[in-house]
Design goal:
The protein is an all-alpha fold. It folds into two domains: 54 residues; 134 residues, no CATH class. The protein is 69% helix and 0% strand. It has nine helices and no strands. Helix 3 crosses helix 4, helix 6 packs across helix 7 and helix 6 packs across helix 8. 24% of the residues are buried.
């Protein structure tokens, strides 16, 4: 996973250099990009084989949730082995999406999210953004928060926490995703 991230970072850097490169340098950059693409494909194949060999059941459970893709599954499996073994509050704090108090003495500050595993948080953020578009449960949760007047960034972090909680419960219970379990019934006319 670490090597894949390094290769992707190198590809991004080379791609950024391409914008300001002359013709001669552009040819060199294109050949480096081709090499990096081949390396990433090779690492992806190795990761895929390893995941199938050691984490096939966990991968299948996580893959059943809309918004969760291969990179999210890999990152959660490798960098968050506690997923499915801790409670929802503990896992949210471990990732850094739990609102923590900023109190001192009599002063009560605003609750903020901080700390945690930034690499996992970045991947859960992207998964939540995709889920807000394609997962009816996360979309409804986000829309309800925004309609209640929550700032959009706060609503996104809440969606991240909800998605993480759902993934934690799926692995804890060893059950596939079922949107009907998480959708709130809507009030009638």
């Amino acid at each position: 996973m670490t090597r894949r991230r390094q290769l992707v970072d190198m590809r991004v850097a080379e791609h950024n250099r391409l914008e300001h490169a002359g013709a001669r340098a552009a040819r060199s950059i294109h050949s480096v990009l081709k090499l990096l693409d081949k390396q990433i494909a090779s690492v992806d194949q190795h990761i895929d084989d390893h995941m199938d060999l050691h984490f096939k059941a966990q991968r299948g459970l996580l893959d059943s949730v809309k918004g969760v893709g291969p990179v999210t599954i890999l990152t959660l499996t490798a960098a968050l082995p506690e997923l499915g073994k801790l409670g929802r509050r503990q896992i949210a704090k471990l990732v850094g999406v739990a609102p923590l108090a900023d109190d001192s003495g009599a002063r009560q500050g605003r609750r903020r999210t901080w700390g945690g595993r930034s690499q996992v948080r970045a991947v859960v953020y992207m998964a939540a953004i995709v889920a807000m578009r394609h997962n009816p449960v996360i979309r409804a949760f986000y829309e309800r928060l925004v309609a209640a007047g929550k700032p959009k960034k706060v609503a996104i972090v809440a969606c991240m926490r909800k998605l993480l909680t759902i993934l934690n419960a799926i692995l804890r219970d060893q059950s596939m995703w079922n949107a009907a379990r998480h959708l709130r019934p809507t009030a009638g006319p």
